[in-house]
Design brief:
The protein is of the alpha+beta class and about 180 residues long. The chain has one domain. The strands form three sheets. It has a five-stranded antiparallel beta sheet, with no helix packed on it. Helix 1 runs antiparallel to helix 2. The two termini are about 15 Å apart. Keywords: Signal. Pfam families: PEP-CTERM. It comes from Roseateles subflavus. This is PEP-CTERM sorting domain-containing protein.
Amino acid sequence: MKLKSAVAALALSGLAFAASAATLTYNVSRTIGSGSVMGTITTDGTFGTLSTGNITAWSLTFNDGTSSFVSNQGNSQVGVFGLGFTADIDSLDFNFGQAGAAVDFQSPVIGSGVDYWCFDGTSLSCTGGHSTENVNGGSATLSISQQGVIAMATRQAVPEPASLALVGLALVGAAASRRRR
């Protein structure tokens, strides 16, 4: 009877873990000239083309080589335009060759002209250029030209919930087997 209770508890904990694993957090570590963008972006777990609504949280430090700004969902906005921003299990990618595509993390609002990290495709522009990645931490704007699809953020490998549940089930089975002896 105790074995059945242990297995049921393990199954319920596995289901709870799977439900909480719907969101995915990606790590950002970008160098843009003498500046950088560091931090995390969390999505709702969608794979494929992303829109603004798929970004659920972020904490990013914009450094323009002179000053820094910490952007998050409490003090900034994010805008995803077009079809150039995609996600898979390993990374958030941007296609700099995609017409009409741009992604902008900016404080206090999109278009305010300061405190932003923006990447744009071939026909939209954050700063007047096309196919560029830009950062502004409050003092200056740094830009670099980009081509093709580039991983803007990556994830560290995390065990899948099913794998963890199998390991737990094996441990429960081993404990039950040992107890019977």
